[in-house]
Amino acid sequence: MGEHLGRRRWAIPEGWIPGASTGPAPALTSHETACLLNVGDADAHVEITIFFEDRDPAGPYRVTVPARRTVHQRFNDLTDPEPVPRDTAYASLIESDVPIVVQHSRLDSRQAENALLTTVAFAGDE
Amino acid sequence: MGEHLGRRRWAIPEGWIPGASTGPAPALTSHETACLLNVGDADAHVEITIFFEDRDPAGPYRVTVPARRTVHQRFNDLTDPEPVPRDTAYASLIESDVPIVVQHSRLDSRQAENALLTTVAFAGDE
Amino acid sequence: MGEHLGRRRWAIPEGWIPGASTGPAPALTSHETACLLNVGDADAHVEITIFFEDRDPAGPYRVTVPARRTVHQRFNDLTDPEPVPRDTAYASLIESDVPIVVQHSRLDSRQAENALLTTVAFAGDE
Amino acid sequence: MGEHLGRRRWAIPEGWIPGASTGPAPALTSHETACLLNVGDADAHVEITIFFEDRDPAGPYRVTVPARRTVHQRFNDLTDPEPVPRDTAYASLIESDVPIVVQHSRLDSRQAENALLTTVAFAGDE
C108 vs chain D: nearest CA distance in angstroms? Predict the structure, then answer.
């Protein structure tokens, strides 16, 4: 450790926060998450921009991932400068001042049994 | 922003549109989606070619992803030059005139409870 | 088209064929699949080697992906030189004489409602 | 075979071991797994470091992947130097002395029907 790992630009083309949930909150609330990992010794200052199908992008949303920490950032919890709309297709661009690693996941609990998806995000070249 | 991110050639070897669904349409209709993200300032003109196990490829299907927009293109909705058959194994090649990022996802609602999968597509070298 | 896309060496560390299924066969039989895409003009001759936790590897299993075709190869259907055991952890190495693209997926129907997973496989450097 | 495939540094930003399960153990116990594949002729000595949101990292946890073997290592089973906490967000860094390939998966059986996710981990440059 002590070295950086990852990239500074990441993209997640899939985005959809289901507007309904079943099961106890917050663990089983339908949510989308960007898992951010910073294995380095410097804090990562991250900006997230949200893209839509029919309007200009929103953001940047600012998140700090401290040195040698992970942040599992729910898109549901992004509110500044505006909430991420539910039941709406979106995509995200994640930019950091130091290398990080990004993974996307979703818990969909619209029905009685939950469904999960995940993927490592697309890493830009640097 | 204002810069490009991504690649111009992408592939998704997995493809299968379940022929049956449960739950309210269109949100819970079984579907396959190519999520396309264009963070650049120029529109992306995209051609999708569909490959099969036992016949020649179909397409190209043409999709435009405007500058700074995402398009979540359901394969279910591709009809020109021909619909994508249900309950049939296929794969897709996605080619764009400017760099984009591509993620594949599926909602399978054949049974009472839905199932989800996703992955960032394979990015060709450029 | 007419050009190659992909790599010649791929790996899928996750492998597990559930030994039980519910729902109509073959669509809802629990299965693991390697989705192979060959967008090129030459047939791909593919060899799959299966790795285990506690014994020497099995294979090679031989699969041909014709030019401009996809093959969704269920590991369940590999029988020569030996079947892939159920309820057993395995991994796979996929080697082709021309570039292909590989995606891994599983349908688990051990319970009443199916579950799905997928990822683009790891592409070796060339 | 006989050659190496993969990388020596891998990251999995998503990590969450559900604290509850339904269905017969151990197959349907909620679990997170790092699937490690070593196609080479030398044993891989692997160190896993676990990162958290609000405390210093734990580890290293040591795992050996013998030559030409796979190990599907459940994070649930890591106990030395300390267990991985349940219902807690974490991330992992996986470092090996020889190239390996890493895939992340989870079975979530908190509800009656299980849910699955997987992705090839992020491979560091070398």
Answer: 9
